[in-house]
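User: Predict the structure for this protein chain, please.
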Amino acid sequence: MQAGGNALKAVLCSQPAKVSPLMTEETEQRGKAVPALVRAKKILDALSAGGKPKGVSELARMLDLPKSTVHGLCHTLVDLGLMMRVGPNQFAVGPHVLSWANAFEGQSDLTQEFMRIADANDLISKQAINLSILTGREVMYVACRRGTDPLGVSFRPGVRLPAPFTATGKAMMSTMPRAEVEALFADGWPEPWTRRSVPDLKTLLRELDETRERGYSIDDGQLRDAMVCFGAAVFGASDDRAIAGIAIGLLSGEVNEASTSLVSHAVQSLAQKLSHRLGGNRH
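Assistant: Here is the predicted structure, written as structure tokens:
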């Protein structure tokens, strides 16, 4: 299952923070904005705020940008569906923006439905149950139902961790084509968190095969020593790949045949219920 700079890598509320090489790289890049992207955002903001179509000259004056720059960006944004032409010389916000708005709303539904289902679960009461989404080669936690066990762990929403070491990451990646998984790590492999962290891509691909066969994933001390996590994928209406992952964690001393059976079945059941609430039928 599932700091350079002030970035936090610690997901365990009761544990000390640990420095993340991945998050260090991310922090170092934060001040390096892409100028064309910033200008494109300003154009879209201007169109959104005004409530009416605008031409290139008006946008250039408003934003203090060269007309040639605005002209080029507008045409690119039209090609991408982010803007549309209104008449011969004006532009408005395009239809593709709506898909992003719908995605944001869908994520909100995702977390709300997760909390309803997790709170209603009476089989797993001591352990934390967490929900995450895949962002590149990391997972980002978006919701967590805290466990009642004082020795349990709490995964804070917004924290990102290397996907190969987390149960949710492996559950989600198991639904992706092999080539896409390989592409995620073309630029290198994340530093291990423990001696048991997945050491390379070949091992990860083998674990993803095992995850598909079992129906659930396992993080056996790969993220934190003495913690074992079980994860399952959550699907939306498209059913082609996971949109999220659910995981439940145990202290390694609690893991035996009975608890493994209970928790692995519970996480699959929770993922199936959440998928059905979101219109998915793959499970």
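The chain has two domains: 21-27+101-277, 35-94.
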